[in-house]
Structure formats: C-alpha cells, structure tokens
Amino acid sequence: MRLTRMLPLVGGLTGALALTGMAVAPAANATGDFAPTGSAFAIKSEVSLLNGTVGLKIAPQPKASYPAGADKSLIKVTGQDVLKGTNIAPNSKLELGVLNASSDLKDGKLKSEASVADLKLKLEDVLKLSAKLVEAHCVATPQGVKGGSNLVDLKVGGQLIDADAVVANPNTVVEVKGVGKVILNEQKETEDGLTVNAIHVKLNAVEGVAPDVVKGDIIISQAKCSTKGGPSVEPSPEPSEPSGNPSTPPSDGNGPSTPPAGGDNGGNNGGNNGGDNGGNNGGDNGGNNGQNSDLAKTGANGLLPIAGAAAGLLAVGGGALYLARRRKANA
C-alpha cells in the first residue's frame, strides 16, 4: 500500500485530520443571477463480487436536497436504519453510528453537509477503513462555491494516519495494491458548482491478487452545491450609509452656551454692597465671561458691552454732578 502526494501511513496517536484544502468554483454570472441547488448524502455503495453476487449495495442515504422536493432538507438516521435489509457479502462487515445530511438556504447562502460517525468497514479481507467522523461540506453564494472535508481518527488498511504529519489536499490518493484506491477529500468542480466526497473508495481488483472483489464504488459523506438550477435568490440589501450629520450639533469648544452663575453673583454682590471692587469684579469677571461665550459664536467683539457700560456710568455720573450743583445753588 502506498500513498501519493506525500501521504504516509504511520502508527501512533492520531488526532483530527482536517482536510482544509478547498476548491472554489467560479462566481455566479455577472448579472447577479443566483439560483442555487444542493444535495447531500452520508453513504452510498455499489460493490460487486467476481462471481456476480452483490458485495455491498446501499442506495444514497440519508439524502437531503435543496429545493427540498421529494427529499427533505435535513435528515438524521442511525446506522441500524441504513443497514436494515442491506445486501452485504458474508466476509464483509459495515458498522455505522449516526448519519446526517442537510442542504438548505439560510441568510442568502446555500450550505450542504453530510457526516458519518463511528465508521467501520471491512470488505472481503482486502480493504479495511475506519474513522470516528467523516464529514463533507460546501457553501454556495453569489460569489461562487467552496467546500472541504473533515476526518477524525482515520485508518486505512488498519494503519493510523498521523494528523500532525499529513495535510491532505483535495484529491489525495491512497493506493491499495491489487484492490484499487481511496481518495480523501475528493473535489469535483463544474462550471457553476462543486461536489465534495470526504472518502471515495474505487475498487478495481486485479485478478489473482484480490479475486473476490471485482469492481465498485463506495462514497462516505458527499456534499454538492451549485449556483444555478434552483429558484432565484434576491441579494441581501446593502446596509445604508450613515449621513454623517449628528442630530445634535457638537459644542464648538468656546465655552458653555449659558453664562455661568459667576456673573450674576458677582454683579449682585457688587451692586448690593455698593463697593466699586465688588461690582466691578462681579460684573466684569462673571458677566463678561458668560457674555464673551455667546459673543464668540456671533463674531461680536467683547469690548462692545464694556464700552456701553462705561458710557452708562458717565451719564449717571454727569446727572449726579448736575443735581449736586443745583442743590448747592438753591441753598
């Protein structure tokens, strides 16, 4: 047994083998027409023996599709459900855990997935295959299709595949001498779609080496996605651009719009006490600070109120002097 594309079979502790190589199919046509279709199934087998008897025959199941049609969009079954009534050769054995298949449209994306848990396959003592999990997936969007596979604790021919030593690119091949080959993360592209087979066993035995098995195919976990062939899907509306104009104008940084209380307190204290310092300090420091804040917004000069106040004081002083002189003259 040998592997192509640098796929050594080694014994030892095996972790999860994530087949991350992803093929990307072309995007939908330039007009934006996105009418996706998809399907998925967990297992399919068509194996014949040399004497003409059936070695292992299983129709694709469980099978899901989009649009749903006769098949549902999400199916979950047990291995017992699948194997019930299955034709399998006496020297062959197949064990399956839970099987899942789904193909559905959500949020403008078509996603197809299939998985098989606790797989154990023995075929006429010439092929052994097992894994904790075998999963295939693909996603179709208006931009195109991409997909990949995940394998956990995979064994081929009874040998563990070291997840740390192997990065399985799409269409990685394990050759099985005299029997055929096992393709991992098989990806087949079309003009508008992609088919992903997590494991594809192709049997074509050489007579005299493995005389019991003659030909056949076994697919474990298939996901298929396409951008065409189904009902049209309207693209999601683009989010609206913010206007950039805040509902409340920001502060210009020149001070509060309402004059602080210092002007009133200062002016009142100065006026009530009759002291020049109190009145001037309160009026000038408190009142002018508040006024200057408003004046700065209009572009007016802060000296104008001061000049007006000075003129008023001169008028008051002149009137007082006039009254004083009249009283003196009358006396």
Automatic annotation (TrEMBL):
<keyword id="KW-0732">Signal</keyword>
<protein>
    <recommendedName>
        <fullName>Gram-positive cocci surface proteins LPxTG domain-containing protein</fullName>
    </recommendedName>
</protein>
<feature type="signal peptide">
    <location>
        <begin position="1"/>
        <end position="30"/>
    </location>
</feature>
<feature type="compositionally biased region" description="Gly residues">
    <location>
        <begin position="263"/>
        <end position="289"/>
    </location>
</feature>
<feature type="domain" description="Gram-positive cocci surface proteins LPxTG">
    <location>
        <begin position="295"/>
        <end position="331"/>
    </location>
</feature>
<keyword id="KW-0572">Peptidoglycan-anchor</keyword>
<keyword id="KW-0964">Secreted</keyword>
<keyword id="KW-0472">Membrane</keyword>
<feature type="region of interest" description="Disordered">
    <location>
        <begin position="225"/>
        <end position="299"/>
    </location>
</feature>
<keyword id="KW-1133">Transmembrane helix</keyword>
<keyword id="KW-0812">Transmembrane</keyword>
<keyword id="KW-0134">Cell wall</keyword>
<feature type="transmembrane region" description="Helical">
    <location>
        <begin position="302"/>
        <end position="324"/>
    </location>
</feature>
<dbReference type="InterPro" id="IPR019931">
    <property type="entry name" value="LPXTG_anchor"/>
</dbReference>
